[in-house]
Automatic annotation (TrEMBL), chains A, B:
First and last residue of the signal peptide: none
Tree of life domain: Bacteria
Keywords associated with the record: Cytoplasm, DNA replication, DNA-binding, DNA-directed DNA polymerase, Nucleotidyltransferase, Transferase
Chain ranges of the DNA polymerase III beta sliding clamp N-terminal domain: 1-121
Domain DNA polymerase III beta sliding clamp C-terminal span(s) in chain numbering: 247-365
UniProt domain DNA polymerase III beta sliding clamp central: residue ranges: 131-242
SUPFAM superfamilies referenced in this protein's UniProt entry, alphabetically: DNA clamp
Family: Belongs to the beta sliding clamp family.
InterPro entries: DNA_clamp_sf (IPR046938), DNA_polIII_beta (IPR001001), DNA_polIII_beta_C (IPR022635), DNA_polIII_beta_cen (IPR022637), DNA_polIII_beta_N (IPR022634)
Name of the molecule in the record: Beta sliding clamp
Subunit structure: Forms a ring-shaped head-to-tail homodimer around DNA.
Annotated GO CC locations: cytoplasm; DNA polymerase III complex
A biological process from GO: DNA strand elongation involved in DNA replication
C-alpha cells in the first residue's frame, strides 16, 4: 500500500471510524482500524462486531493494499501531523511496518494482517428511508436518555424505530419513563419496525452531528445501515418484541397543566439541589389554583418553589424522581408544555400544546406520609 | 443573622471561599463555609487549617450574626438562585435552620454553630510586598508543575518564594527538574524567603486569575497572607531548608542551541505519541550540524523528527523524560529558547535568549544501547 492523502480529511475519518472500535478486546485486531484502498479512495473501518463504521476519503493511491493499525496510536499520530500532506506506506515484507510521513516527521508503527478483520454485514433489502441527518439526530438525542441501562430486559437497551408511511418514530423506555419522538418524511415508505441498540445510536448521533443533508437508512432482519455521502454505518438489530407501549399511554386525564418549560425545569433543578442520593430523590408537585408548588426535603434541608401555571381539572399532589423529570424537561425545546395527570399513582404525560412531535411519560413515586 | 445581598457577588465569593474547604473531613465543620456579618459586609470563609480564604461582599444587614453551612449544598443553591436579590436569615432557636429566599424559591438548610470553626492565623509583620496579581499568578502557573508530588521530602512539595530587594523569584523542583521564574517589583522590599505549599499555590492561582490590579503579600514565620481588595488568603508555610539550588545550575556549557519553542515542543509531543507507559518514556535528541533530530521508540513503533536550530559547540546525543520536557516547553511563551548542555549525563538548562525571566533545568535519562 502506498498513498498520499490530506491530514484533515484523514483525521475526521479516523475520528468517525474510531467510534466503532473496541476500547479493550481479547482480539487485538478489534482495537484496530482497517485501512484499505479502492482505486483512488482510502477507506477506514472500525468494527466491534456490534457496530461498524466505514469512512471514505479521496486519496492519491500509487499502490493498492490494506492493513490494520492500532486505533489509539494511529489517531494520536494523525491529529498531530505537522503538514496537511500525509504519505502512508505499507509493505508486508518490511517487518509489517506501516510508515507515515508528513513534513519532517516519520512514524513507523506496527501493522496487523487484515485477514482476520471482521466483515461488515451486507444488507440486501428494498426497505429504506431517506431523512435529513439533523432531523434523525434530533430524534435520537431527545429520546436516548430513556433507554434502559440494565440488561435484564435486553430489548429495552435499544430504541424502537418505527416507520409508518411518511411518519417516523423513535421510542425508548426503561420501566420508569417513556420517550417518543415523531417526525414526517417527504414521501411514503411503507411500514417497518426495528430495534437499534442504544449504545450504537449514541455513537451514530455523534457522527450525524457533523452531517448536513440527507441520510439513507436501509433495514433487513438483522441489521440497519445508515449511509451518508462519505460514511457507511452498520448496526446489528436487537431481536425480540418491543412492548405494546401505546396501550399504556392514558388517553384521558383528570388534571391538565400548561406551564413554561424552562421555568418548570429550573424549579425542579433547584428543588433537587438538596436531593443528593438515590434514596431521597423525590420532588413533590402540588397543583392547584393555577399554581404549581414544588417541594423537596432530605437530611440536608428542604426547598419550596412556586410558579404560575394554567391548571384545568382536579387538584393533585404527586411525586416524581427528580432526575427522570429533569432529563425529560431538558429534551424539550418548546417554550411551554402540556402535562396531563389521572391520579397520583398513574403516569404523567408530557406533550406539546400543539401537534404530536413528542410524548413523554413518567411514572410517579409514592409520597412518604 | 438577617441580610440581603446580590446573588452574583455571593456566588463568586462562595466559589472562592470554597477553594479552602476540605472535600472530606472527619470534622463536618471543615466541610462548611462560615458566613459572618460585619456591619454592612458579609464575609464568607473557607478554612481547611492549611489554607484559609475569606471573601467580603457588600450586604444590607438587618441583624448581625454568624453561622456555618455545608459548602457543597450552599454553593449548589446559590448558583441556581432565580433572582439576583437573596435574603439570608438564621435564628439559633429556629432548629438551627438557615433560610435563603430568592424570587419564588425558599431553601431551608442546616446551620452549624460557628463556635468550632477554626480561626484564621493573624499575621503581625512588617514584611510585605506589593505586586500585580497577573504577574504573580503567571510566576505560579509557569513553575507549579515542577513541585514534587510525593511527600518523601516535604519541603519540595512547596515552592520557594524569594524576595531580594526589587526582585521576586519562585522556585520549584522535584529531583528531576527545576523551574525558576524571576520578575521585578516597583520598589525595594528587603530580603525574605518562605516556602509555600504547592497545593495552596494552585488554589491561590485560580483565585488570582480573576483579579486585576495589585495584591499585597505579608509574611511571618508560620504563614503568608495575600490580600486583594475583597479577598484575604492565608496559607501556612512549610518549615525546613530549601536546597541550595543555585549551586546545581551549571554556569558553563559545551553545546548551546537556539530553537523555535513551538516547533521543538510540537516535535517532542509527536515523538511522545508512541510512548504510552512510564517505563518507555524517553525521547532522544541528536544535536549536530544546526539540526535537532528527535527520535523515540517503544513496542508501538518508532518516530523520527528533524528540525533546524542554531547549534554552537560540540555535537551531543542525550535523552529526556518526554513528559518532563513537554511540561517545561508548555510553560514558555517566548518564540525561541536557548538550551545549554555540558554532556549527556549533566542537566540541560533552558533559558530565554535575552534576560533572566526564567531558568528551567532538566536532568537527562540514560540512553539504552
Amino acid at each position: 500500500m502506498d498513498l498520499v492523502c490530506e491530514r484533515n480529511k484523514l483525521n475526521s475519518a479516523v475520528n468517525n471510524a474510531q467510534k466503532a472500535v473496541s476500547e479493550r478486546s481479547t482480539l487485538p485486531i478489534l482495537e484496530g482500524i482497517l485501512l484499505k484502498t479502492d482505486n483512488n479512495t482510502l477507506t477506514l473501518t472500525g468494527n466491534n462486531t456490534e457496530l461498524a463504521i466505514r469512512c471514505r476519503i479521496e486519496s492519491d493511491v500509487k499502490e493498492q493494499g490494506s492493513v490494520v493499525v492500532s486505533s489509539k496510536i494511529f489517531s494520536d499520530i494523525v491529529k498531530r501531523l505537522p503538514d496537511n500532506r500525509v504519505h502512508i506506506e505499507y509493505k508486508k515484507d518490511h517487518n509489517n511496518i506501516v510508515t507515515l510521513r508528513s513534513g519532517n516527521s516519520k512514524f513507523d508503527i506496527l501493522g496487523i494482517d487484515p485477514i482476520d478483520f471482521p466483515d461488515i454485514p451486507k444488507i440486501i433489502s428494498d426497505n429504506f428511508i431517506t431523512i435529513s441527518a439533523k432531523k434523525f439526530n434530533n430524534m435520537i438525542k431527545k429520546t436516548i436518555f430513556a433507554v434502559a441501562q440494565d440488561e435484564t430486559k435486553p430489548v429495552f437497551t435499544g430504541e424502537l424505530l418505527s416507520i409508518d408511511n411518511d411518519e417516523i418514530r423513535l421510542v425508548a423506555l426503561d420501566g420508569f419513563r417513556l420517550a417518543i419522538r415523531n417526525d414526517k418524511m417527504d414521501r411514503n415508505y411503507g411500514t417497518n419496525k426495528v430495534i437499534i441498540p442504544g449504545k450504537n445510536l449514541s455513537e451514530i448521533s455523534k457522527i450525524l452531528s457533523d452531517i448536513d443533508g440527507d441520510i439513507t437508512i436501509i433495514f433487513d432482519d438483522k441489521s440497519v445501515q445508515i449511509n451518508t455521502e462519505e460514511i457507511t454505518i452498520v448496526s446489528r438489530l436487537l431481536s425480540g418484541n418491543f412492548i405494546n407501549y401505546e396501550k399504556i399511554i392514558p388517553t384521558e386525564y383528570k388534571t391538565r397543566v400548561i406551564a413554561d418549560t424552562r421555568e418548570f425545569q429550573d424549579s425542579i433543578e433547584r428543588a433537587s439541589v438538596i436531593l443528593r442520593d438515590e434514596k431521597s430523590n423525590t420532588v413533590k408537585l402540588n397543583i392547584n389554583n393555577n399554581r404549581i408548588e414544588i417541594t423537596s426535603s432530605s437530611e440536608h434541608g428542604s426547598v419550596y418553589e412556586e410558579m404560575a401555571a394554567n391548571v384545568e381539572g382536579l387538584d393533585i399532589e404527586i411525586g416524581f424522581n427528580s432526575k427522570y423529570l429533569i432529563e425529560i424537561l431538558r429534551a424539550i425545546d418548546d417554550e411551554s408544555i402540556c402535562m396531563e395527570f389521572t391520579n397520583n399513582v398513574g403516569p404523567c404525560i408530557i406533550k406539546p400544546i400543539d401537534g404530536n412531535s413528542y410524548i413523554y411519560f413518567i411514572l410517579p413515586v409514592k409520597l412518604a406520609r
